From TrEMBL:
<dbReference type="InterPro" id="IPR000415">
    <property type="entry name" value="Nitroreductase-like"/>
</dbReference>
<feature type="binding site">
    <location>
        <position position="41"/>
    </location>
    <ligand>
        <name>FMN</name>
    </ligand>
</feature>
<feature type="binding site" description="in other chain">
    <location>
        <begin position="12"/>
        <end position="14"/>
    </location>
    <ligand>
        <name>FMN</name>
    </ligand>
</feature>
<dbReference type="InterPro" id="IPR026021">
    <property type="entry name" value="YdjA-like"/>
</dbReference>
<keyword id="KW-0520">NAD</keyword>
<keyword id="KW-0285">Flavoprotein</keyword>
<keyword id="KW-0288">FMN</keyword>
<comment type="similarity">
    <text>Belongs to the nitroreductase family.</text>
</comment>
<keyword id="KW-0521">NADP</keyword>
<dbReference type="InterPro" id="IPR029479">
    <property type="entry name" value="Nitroreductase"/>
</dbReference>
<feature type="binding site" description="in other chain">
    <location>
        <begin position="134"/>
        <end position="136"/>
    </location>
    <ligand>
        <name>FMN</name>
    </ligand>
</feature>
<dbReference type="Pfam" id="PF00881">
    <property type="entry name" value="Nitroreductase"/>
</dbReference>
<keyword id="KW-0560">Oxidoreductase</keyword>
<dbReference type="GO" id="GO:0016491">
    <property type="term" value="F:oxidoreductase activity"/>
</dbReference>
<feature type="domain" description="Nitroreductase">
    <location>
        <begin position="9"/>
        <end position="165"/>
    </location>
</feature>
<dbReference type="InterPro" id="IPR052530">
    <property type="entry name" value="NAD(P)H_nitroreductase"/>
</dbReference>
<protein>
    <recommendedName>
        <fullName>Putative NAD(P)H nitroreductase</fullName>
        <ecNumber>1.-.-.-</ecNumber>
    </recommendedName>
</protein>
Length: 187
């Protein structure tokens, strides 16, 4: 029986320890196709994706190493191994790219719509037994990395969305009781 949306929302966890098993590109594409039903103002569909899966997976790991680790050639295999630990285990990467509209309202709407898409993708992947983590390392904005990915001026990488399989389910990060976050408006 399929799980309810409530169950999937509440049981999804950000997965930070993947087990190294690759994620098929067709699974990532299917997740993104469904996630794209996110609400978006003016139907601008303000998103595009750079997907690194299957043969792209080794390529992106090399690119990340070359673009984000200074003097990586000078490091010993052990030092390098430590530095690239975060790149090695995810089974696919999706870089979610949003236009940076010069108008603030449109820019914020586009970020919001694309964030809704990212959450959709995390839930859809979870339903398939695939974990995700939305990551925003500072090096995503480094010119060398942006150029390597083909990100153009006027675009921003909103998320590095890691996909992968996992062996251990992380504990839930408890949420504040919602009553503490709600003001019921009355006249
Ligand atoms: C915009 C955004 C950026 C995030 N960036 C990172 C990140 O750079 N590194 C990381 O480990 N987790 C990152 N996360 C994931 C959060 O750490 C995670 O969602 C939070 O700990 C709650 O855990 P849960 O998703 O399992 O409920 C990010 C989440 C969001 C929404």
């Amino acid at each position: 029986m399929s799980q309810s949306i409530k169950t999937i929302i509440k049981e999804r966890r950000s997965i930070k320890k993947f087990n190294g098993r690759p994620v098929e590109q067709s699974d990532v594409t299917a997740v993104l196709a469904d996630a794209a039903w996110a609400p978006n103002h003016g139907n601008r569909e303000p998103w595009r994706f750079i997907v690194a899966a299957e043969s792209g997976l080794d390529a992106i790991r090399t690119t990340m190493k070359e673009c984000t680790i200074p003097n990586w050639e000078a490091l010993s295999p052990e030092e390098l191994d430590k530095k690239i630990a975060g790149f090695k285990l995810p089974g696919a990467f999706v870089f979610v790219v949003v236009p940076e509209d010069a108008r603030q309202k449109e820019r914020l709407e586009d970020y919001s719509a694309t964030s809704a898409l990212v959450q959709n993708a995390q839930l859809l992947a979870w339903e398939k037994g695939i974990g995700t983590c939305w990551k925003t390392p500072a090096w995503m904005d480094a010119p060398k990395f942006r150029t390597a990915l083909g990100v153009k001026p006027g675009e921003r990488i909103l998320a590095m969305l890691q996909f992968g399989y996992y062996d251990e389910l992380p504990k839930a990060k408890p949420r504040t009781p919602i009553e503490q976050k709600i003001t019921y408006f009355r006249k």
